[in-house]
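Need the bound structure for iron/sulfur cluster, inputs here:
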Amino acid sequence: MGKIYGEDVQVKPAFPMARAQKKGVSGTSGKGLLLYIHVPFCKSRCHYCNFHSQAFNQVTFAWYFKLMLQEIELWGKRLKKPLLRTIYFGGGTPSLIPLHQLNQIMKALDKAFTFGSDMEVTIEANPDSATDISYFRALLTMGFNRLSLGIQSLNDMELHLMGRPHSAAMAMQSFESARKAGFGNISVDLIWGLPNQRLKAWTAQLEAVSRMRPEHISAYNLTIEPNTVMAKLCDEQEDLTLPPEQEQGRMFIYGAEYLESMGYMHYEVSNFARMGFTSAHNSGYWDGSDYLGLGPSAVSTIGRRRFTTPRYMDEYDAYVRGGLVGEDHELLTDDNLLKEMVMLSLRTSKGLDLKEYRKRAGFDLIKRQQQLITALHREHLIRINQGRLRLTKNGMLVSNVIIRRLAFDTD
Ligand code: SF4
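Answer from helper R.:
Posting the output first, comments after.
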């Protein structure tokens, strides 16, 4: 029994998790697709956010829900019921979806796609809309086996500055409820590098979060996007400034080293996991696997075809009801795919497979970029071993610059 928006919901399992039908499907990878469902609704706008989301209301949600069920059916038919490796509900705030409708989406997915036996099924939740044990039990019953909790900070002043609609106490209660309900794979999202935050405050956050013992931690560096409340606040208040560059460097390096000392593997620039708990969905994306994105503004890549779903609800309506799902696509060139391989793989601890690069590019990256590689190596920003090029922690700090140069300066 789950309770949300004051209504009691009886949840019957959407699908039996044990069932597995593995078969390759033409046009999609035999290993299975990564499926992403975009939920473009939030309770309120966080001060730093520039993602595509809108205020939740029953009327717009009902519109979205109907279209989502249709889009699922259309993609299922178009791709001939492909095998799924992962399902990921992201947003936005997926925990705003009423439970009985979430269960209907899961049932529609089960009908339209083929579920893998060991499929990772993640839902993002915010502490203000996911608090009680019964809610999390209902999620488990539906087949969700991984929770990504948007805690962001365990400091009320920082949460207030970020415009988050929850307190630290609510975040801890939400985490505890999920654990008690039986979630054995919980990821916690944090944001660091907030205005006026310093290393001491950031390490205090990490210590508090590690005591909760989540299986996975995503720690994102705040970037102040134009036209956000945070940008306005920093413009208006002279005493509100981002930590200086050197301090941000210390926060990143010490933060990562602290988490490693607590048993978390630093497997991507912003992601840390205990052994066996890396995100299969995100890892698949960084490995260049096929992914299908459903919902307004979602993007899909299947082989060389890239599909982009319209961003706004009226356009999404025309796209789904007009039968345009999976019609228009951009064809990715060898060069596009090669650059994406560099950009995605260098963010991970596995790094770039130089032999694979040579096979695809027809030239050796190290020879082609010899001067740059030597300079990066001399500055301890990269390492090359066992045929792979990886960023060091210092390199990860300036990953955007290095990756751009390695990916784009080869022409
Ligand atoms: S909950 Fe997430 S998507 Fe929604 S406004 Fe906040 S940061 Fe943006």
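Comments: Confidence is low (pLDDT under 50) at residues 1-26. The chain has two domains: 2-285, 334-411.
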